[in-house]
Amino acid sequence: MAGALAQCLGGQPCHAVASRGMNADAVPASPPRASAGALRAGMCLPVLLAGVLLGTAWQLQQPRLWPWQAYAALLLALLAGAPWCWRARRGLRLRHLAALLVLAAGVQGAVCGLRAAAFAATALEASLQGQDVQVQGVVAAMVQPHDDGGVRLRLEVEAARRDGAAVRLPALIDLGWYADAGRGHDAVPSLQPGQRWRLAVRLKAPHGASNPHGFDYELWLWEQGVQATGYVRSSARLDALHGAPQLLGQTWRHPVEWLRQQVRDAIVRRLQPADAGAARQSAAGVVAALVTGDQRAIERSDWDLFRTTGIAHLMSISGLHITLFAWLAALLLGWLWRRSSRLCLAVPAPVAGVLGGLLLAAGYALFSGWGVPAQRTVLMLATVGLLRLSGRRWPWPLVWLLACAVVLLADPWAMLQAGFWLSFVAVAVLFASGVPEGGGHRTGMLRHFRALLREQWVVTLALTPLGLLLFGQVSLVGLLANVLAIPWVTLVVTPLALAGVLWAPLWQAAAWCVQVLLAPLQWLASWPWAQLHLPMAPLWAGIAAVAGGALLALRLPWGVRALGLPLLLPALLWQVPRPAPGQFDVLAADVGQGQAVLVRTAGHGLLYDAGPRFAGGDAGERVLAPLLYALGERLDMLVLSHGDEDHAGGAPAVLARQAQARVLGSLQPDHPVRGLRPVSACTAGQAWDWDGVRFTVLHPPLAGQGAAGRAQPGSNGRSCVLRIEASGQAQAPGAAALLAGDLERAQEQELVAAAAPLRADLLLVPHHGSKTSSSAAFIDAVQPQLALVQAGYRNRFGHPAPAVAARYRERGIPLVATPQCGAAQWSSATAQQWRCWRESAPHYWQYADR
Questions:
Q1: Would you call 309 helix, strand, or coil by DSSP?
Q2: Which of 93, 315, 594, 842 is deepest in the core (most CB within 10 A)?
Q3: Do 191 and 175 form a contact (C-beta atoms < 8 A)?
Q4: Residue 795 DSSP class
Q5: pLDDT one-digit tens code per residue, 96-149
Q6: Dist. CA 488–CA 115, nearest whole Å
Q7: Contact by Cβ (8 Å): 105, 51
C-alpha cells in the first residue's frame, strides 16, 4: 500500500522543496524571514495532531476503565481551558505549545475513554453466561463455513428471552452452528445475510488465549463491536425444550453482505469442484479473497507460503488494492470527464476524478467487508484527497500526521494493530526518501521498473526491523517475491477477478494467473533461509532497529546512513534470557481445553504435550509455533503424555517447525504422530540430565509390570508422568515440578503405594482438575507449593471440578487456572513465585478485567 498511497498523498519531499528553493526563477532571492512568534503559531496544528496520537496511546494503556463520569469530568475541565489557548495563539510561547499538547492529548484520551466505557456497558451480563437463551436476530455478515459442515455467523440481536422473560443481550454476537450427528445435531441449514432467525443459543463473554507475543482475540472482537460468543443449541431434546431453529424470513438489511456471499459462493462453485486438485483449490481461495475480502477462503498452507515469501498483504483486499483502485479510478474518471466541456465547466476534471475515485474506492472497501484495514485506507485517502481539493500544499510530515490523527479519531484501537504501523511507517519513509516524486507519464518502462525496484528496496529496509519487532520474522526472499507479485497481482489477477463479477469466465482466467504465480513462489519458499525467525526483542531494541532501518533507507550520504547499522544490532542479536545452569523454568501456555508446557534449562528445551485440535486449526499452529519462534526456542524433545486430541492435537504443527526435536510419548501404535517422526516409548525409569537438571519418568510402567489382576488402563491411565528437579545442595534438594498428564485416581494410588519420588513444588494438576483425579493421598504425597490447571474457559467438562478445587484449598495450596491466569510462568530459582500473563499485562477490553 505504501508506494501507491505515497503517490496519492502528493506531498512534497524535502529534497524537492529544497531544489525549488535554490531556483532563482521560482522563488525570490531573499525570502522574508518568519518571526519566531509566527513559527510558533504555525506549530499549533502539528501540536494538536500530535496530541491526538499521544492521547490515544495513553488511553489504550489503561489496564482498567475509569467510570464514565471521570472521563466526562476530565473532558469538561479540559474544554474549559480551550478559550485560553485560543486567545494565546498569537503570542505563543513554548509553554503555550506544551499546554496545547496536553489539552489535545487529554481531550482525545477522555473521548476515547467515554467511547470505551459506553461500549463496555453493553457487555453480556454475567448471569447469562452458560445459560440457554432464545434469540431473535438478523444474520449481519457473510457466513463462514467450516470443514466439518458447521458454520460461523454473526447475529444482530433484535430480542432475547430466557425462561419466558425478556433479557438484554449485546447488539452483536458471534455464533457457531455445528453439524455433528454423533451429538444429535442436525445438518446446518443454508444461511444468508439478511435472514431473520429465532434460535436457542448458549453464550459467554469473549475470551481468548493470553500468551506472550500472542494474538489478542478479545481486542479483535472489541474492535469489531462483538460482546458475546457462543453456539446454537439444536438437537431433538433441545428443540423440544426451546423450539427448533426457525427461519422467520429474508429482510433487506445487510444487502452488501448478502451480495458478497453470493459472489463468494459462485466463485467457489465455479473454480473449486469436488475433483479439483490442490493447485486449483488454492487459486479459487485467492480469487475469492481478492474479490470479496474473505481471507478465510485461503488455505492455511497457502498462507504459510505467502508469509514465507513476504506477499501476504497482496492476497486479500488490503490497503494496497484499495489505494491502487482509487488511483486508477481517479485517472479514468478524469480522462472521461475531460471528454465533455459541459462537465468540465460544471466541475473541474481533477476535482471530479478525486471525488469519484474516493467514492468508488469506498464502494470497493464496502464490498470487501469494510474491515478495519479497509476503513483505515479510505479515511487516509479521503483526508488527503480533500486536503488537495482545498488547494492547500502542506509539507508531507504534516499531511502524514493529519492522516494518522483522522484514522485514530475514527478508530482509536487501530493503534494496536500491526497494519497501522506498517502502513504509516512505510509511507513516512517513502516520503522522506523522495520516492513519491517518481517519473512522469513520459518515462520509459525501464525507469518505471527501476522506480518500483527502488521503492520495494526502501520499503524492505524500513519495514524489516518493524516486522521483526511485531512478528519476530522476516522474509529474506520478500524483495524478489514482491517485485514479481505486486505488478502481477495488482495489474493482472485482481482486475480479472473483479471483472469476473460481470462475466464469470474471467474468474477462471484469474485462477490460471494465480497458478502461474504460485510456481515461482514455491520455488522461492524452498530456498534455504527463505524466512528468518528471530527472538522477539524488547520494545526499546525494536524502536532502535526501526530507526536504524529508516536511516538506511533515506537519501543521505552513506557515512550518515551507516549510523543505522549499530541501531539494528540489539534487535538482530537479542537472545531471550535463559535459566542459570542447574535451574529450569516452566511456561504453561494458554491453549484452551488442552495441555502444553514448555520447560527450559540453560541450554535445552522440552515441550510437554502440544495442545488441542479444534475447529479450523490447532494449538500447535495458532499458539505454540509462534510462541517458540518468539522465544527463539529450538526444542530438543517433545513429550506427548498420551494420544488424546487435547494433548497431541497440535503435535504435527510443532514437529513441522521443529525438525530436530525427538519425540517421547505414550501413544497407541496407530497414532498419526508415529507417521511423522519416530516415537520412543515413555516408560517408568527413564532419566536424563540437562545442564544440571534431572528429568525422570515415573509412569507408565513397562508392559507386564502393572498392578496384578487390574485391567489395563485407558489412554488417560497410560499418561507419561515426568518429574523435573533442579540442582540442590546436600541438605537442601532443588525445586521440582511434576507434570502428570491425564493421570487417574487408580494410577495415582499406584504411584503413592510404590513410594515414587512425587514431592514437587509445582504440580501440573492431573486431568485438568477432573473429579476422577487429584486424590487426597496423591496431593499429600506431592505437597506442592503451587497447583496449575490448564483448561478451557467455561469448558463443558467443568474443569477444575469444585470438589478438586476444594481439596487443594483445604491444604492451603494456591490453585492457578489458565482461563483466569492466561499463560503461567514459574522458575525453580524462585519456587514460591509465579507470574500470570493476564495479570502482568492487563487490558480493559479483556473480560476478566472489566
A1: helix
A2: 594
A3: no
A4: -
A5: 778 888 999 999 999 999 999 999 999 999 999 999 999 999 999 999 988 777
A6: 42
A7: yes
Residues 113 and 154 occupy one common structural domain: no
Give the pLDDT confidence score for residue 683 in this predicted structure. Answer: 94
Residues 141, 68 share a domain: no
**770 and 806 inside one domain:** yes
pLDDT at residue number 6: 46
Question: Residue 722 pairs with which residues in a beta bridge?
Answer: 697, 739
Q: Show the cell assigned to 38.
A: 509566527
- Following CA atoms 72, 73, 75, 77 in sequence, which dihedral angle do they give, to the nearest 10 degrees? 160
Global pTM reads 0.87
Q: Name the residue range of residue 630's domain.
A: 585-702+712-849
Q: Which of residues 94, 121, 148 is at a domain's end?
A: 121
Please indicate, yes or no, if residue 61 is contained in any of the structural domains: yes
DSSP result, 747-762 = HHHHHHHTT-----SE
| Among 651, 652, 754, CA closest to 701 | 754
For residues 44 and 184, state if they share a domain.
Answer: no
Q: How far, in Å, are 409, 524, 768 from residue 528 at the CA level?
A: 44, 9, 41
In one-letter notation, the amino acid at residue 671 is H
Same domain, 78 and 147: no
Is 49 in the same domain as 101? Answer: yes
Q: Residue 310's Cα: distance from chain center in Å?
A: 17
Strand partners, 788: 764, 816
State CA 21 to chain mean position distance: 46
Q: Could you read off the pLDDT of 599-623 as tens digits, one per residue?
A: 999 999 999 999 999 877 899 999 9
- Rounded Cα gap, residues 504 and 490, in angstroms: 19
pLDDT lower than 50: segments of the chain: 1-39, 181-184, 436-442, 704, 707-711, 849-850
